[in-house]
């Protein structure tokens, strides 16, 4: 018996049982799904955005703190690389698990390539759009004869989200009287292309 105090022993046993319960694969999967669902709730996302806004402002106002955060990030990356070198089999299993988890997802570049092919098939142009003066510019311009130019932001179907600086850039484009579309799948690309028929 590790503890002579009965209260401490009960707490120790409770935590040990809880750790064993949460270590079960099926329980861990359910917990991850619950956390993911909770994180997607609108009020949680809004709180996260507000927190990041305040956090980024605080970091921008304190260069020393920003430098410390960058240094801590580099140290975490070094530790991760050391773990990979020390245990390549474990890392290989992690990569395989990640590949299987994402195997059913369509990637952003696939949606982007599909849009490019559809536009070029109509004799139009779909060049990449970059703004070297600001962050958040849309991915592509769609230009087809007889139609206005459209800005298009491509995202993957699952887990693809528009960042705050992208939202701000899109609002600037709309205030200038232009149109911005956010497309997340080939089906949405097909709906977008119907306007050119």
Total domain units: 2
Instruction: State the distance separating the first and last CA atoms.
Output: 78 Å
The average pLDDT value, as a whole number, equals: 84
Low-confidence regions? none
Instruction: Please summarize the sheet with the most strands.
Output: 3 strands, mixed
Radius of gyration: 24 Å
Helix content: 55-70%
Strand order of the largest sheet: 1-2-3
Please state the overall shape, judged from the principal axes of the Cα atoms. Answer: elongated
Summary of the model, kept short:
It contains 8 helices and 3 strands, in the order ααααααββαβα. The chain has helices at residues 6-23, 25-39, 42-61, 63-86, 88-102, 108-121, 164-175, 186-193, and strands at 140-142, 150-154, 179-183.
Task: Explain this structure.
This protein has a three-stranded mixed β-sheet. The model has no long low-confidence stretch (mean pLDDT 84). The radius of gyration is 24 Å and the shape is elongated. Helix 6 runs parallel beside helix 8 (186-193). The chain has two domains: 6-102, no CATH class; 108-196, Trna Endonuclease, Chain: A, domain 1, CATH 3.40.1350.10. 64% of the residues lie in helices and 7% in strands. With 197 residues, it is mainly alpha-helical. It has eight helices and three strands, in the order H-H-H-H-H-H-E-E-H-E-H. It has helices spanning 6-23, 25-39, 42-61, 63-86, 88-102, 108-121, 164-175, 186-193; strands at residues 140-142, 150-154, 179-183.
